[in-house]
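Below is how a single chain appears once it has passed through the pipeline. First comes the sequence as given, then the structure the pipeline wrote out for it. We keep one example in the README because the format questions we get most often are answered faster by looking than by reading.
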Amino acid sequence: MPLVLDQAEALARIALSHVGQEWPQKLDHVLNGPEDLRRPSALHPAFHGSFDWHSCVHAHWLLARLLRRFPTLAGAAAISARLDAAFTAGNIAAERAYLASPSARGFERPYGWAWLLKLHSELAGTAWDAALAPLAGDFAARFHAHLPRADYPVRAGVHGNTAFALLLAADWAAPRDPVLFDLLRETAWRWYGADADCQAWEPSGEDFLSPALVEAACMARLLPPARFAPWFDGFLPRLHRGEPASLFTPARVSDRSDGRIVHLDGLNLSRAWCWRRLAATLSAGDPRIARLEATAAAHLEAAMPHLDGHYMGAHWLASFALLALEESA
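Resulting structure:
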């Protein structure tokens, strides 16, 4: 199921329909006094749509990515106009000012941090690169400061997951900040290097990430191949037998109007993304490849019909669909 133009245009339409939609809005916001009671578009002039800040960030990533991949797609002009409107000097200065508040120290850590860097990495070479660079630098500085004092990883299947954050941040750090890239690599090994014989007690009822698979994908991204291969064999030693079985079975989604249960559609998409990435690390002829590819396809098929079924999923699922579809290509 590779990404083709028709799918790209459908994903773009979904994102354009909500990326500037201010209401409803779920804020990550501390009120220190009545002066902090401001509407979302005043607090976050660049990223106030898509229900929450991080979803708005990765919706912009989706649009920028599709514009790069398919510059003649039907929504190209609307995408360019949206990026022009979001990434003004004034908007980015306001986002930075919000971030500088002492009460925003933990704002969007680490999920939003990583998606902002992922977005900026996608803007490389475009007219919007320089505009977003100061905010990206702020979040890179937060990674630099936070990772050395983060003694333990967060293994949840939701926003706090640290493996997912390292994985996304690596795409920005590799070409722009080699010191940070080295720190991401060192941190991944410190957190996950001793992990073995993963039992994969998942999914939990609100996961949109597989703690097991995103950890493996993180290590595949950050470790040299010669170091990753033995780690992966020890981490999932029964992969060739389809075990742990829970990783090979798409999650069932009972209620797509429930903002947390619908996370499981995202789990199916992110698993497909991870399975494809992991299959690509295996040597040609490895018998595990066919199983991983088939499992990725099954997870995609379970989720793709439901990207726009309800706003609780529609405001974010398209981004994870794009990750999975591009990996499929």
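The mean pLDDT is 97.

See the next section for the split statistics.
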